[in-house]
Each structure stands twice: as C-alpha cells, then as structure tokens.
Design brief:
This protein is an alpha+beta fold. It has five helices and eight strands, in the order αββββααββααββ. The chain has helices spanning about 5-10, 50, 55-60, 80-100, 105; strands spanning about 15-20, 25-30, 35, 40, 65-70, 75-80, 115-120, 125-130. The strands form two sheets. A five-stranded mixed β-sheet has the order 6-5-4-7-8. It has a three-stranded antiparallel β-sheet with strand order 1-2-3, with no helix packed on it. A hairpin with a 5-residue loop joins strand 1 (about 15-20) and strand 2 (about 25-30). The longest helix has 18 residues, at about 80-100. The radius of gyration is 16 Å and the shape is globular.
C-alpha cells in the first residue's frame, strides 16, 4: 500500500505558528523570522506527489516550515519540513537502488502536487483559497481587487 501524507505526519509539536482567521481557516504560517503562505494538502494525498512537485523543494529551501493537512476546511495537523525532507531522502535512496542509479522521480514528469494555497487579504481581510498557484503581484482577491497578501 502506498504512503499517504497522513502516514508522514510526525507526532512532534510544530515549530511554527499557524495563524487562523475568525472562521478557523489557516491564513499564514509564522516561522522563525518569517511568514509564509499556507500550502494545504489532503491527508490521503499520495506521498509520492511530494517528490514530483517542482515548487516544493524551492519553498522548503526558502524556509517554508511545513504543509498544513486539511480535509475540506478542517485542519487535521501539519506535515513539518523535516518530515518531508526525511521522506525524500529515504525515497531517493530506495529509488536509486531499484532503478540502478537512475532517479525515477527526477526522470519522470514534474508536476505540482494537489494543494490549496490559503492567504488572507490585508485590504479586505477575506481569506482566499487558490488551487496550485502561489499568489503573485497580479493575483485577484475574492473581493474583486488585486490581492494584498497579509504576511505580517
């Protein structure tokens, strides 16, 4: 049976703060010295999709402390960056042995994992939910204006 995100979640307390709006939706992750947008994944997401996501390694290297595990709008827990890195290390070792020196994940198709990005707008305080994309300077808020992401 394939691993899913819920299998990778550690029982250790998170080393970051998950900031939520009045409705309980996470709107940002406050890590040591920096805030990040919320990347939310379903608990049944195949763990192999973590390795196939071209953005995840970059985000982790920029300090993203983890992913928020949600079912619908309910927060179930967090998948810490250390757990993601450990899974990648173990998976890479196994893949190299099986593929005789070829990393199948790197030679396969790179694609974003199924995720939601949750960001609160500083201007109207509305929590926005986007599939896949990270907000850019031209991302529109659900309030009808350019999103002013609240990262403070």
């Amino acid at each position: 049976m394939a691993l899913v995100v819920a299998d990778l979640m550690s029982r250790l307390p998170a080393r970051f703060t998950l900031v939520q709006d009045d409705a309980g939706l996470p709107v940002r992750i406050d890590g040591p010295g920096r805030s990040h947008p919320v990347l939310a994944v379903e608990p049944d997401l195949p763990a192999s999709e973590l390795r196939a996501d071209p953005d995840l390694e970059r985000l982790l290297s920029q300090g993203l402390p983890g992913l928020v595990v949600m079912r619908g709008d309910t927060v179930l827990g967090v998948l810490q960056a250390a757990d993601i890195v450990e899974f990648g290390r173990l998976n890479m070792s196994r893949t190299y042995r099986e593929a005789d020196g070829q990393d199948a994940a790197l030679n396969g198709e790179a694609r974003p994992m199924r995720r939601r990005v949750l960001v609160r707008c500083r201007q109207c305080r509305r929590t926005n939910s986007y599939d896949y994309l990270l907000p850019t300077a031209r991302t529109m808020c659900a309030g009808g204006h350019v999103l002013d992401a609240d990262m403070s």
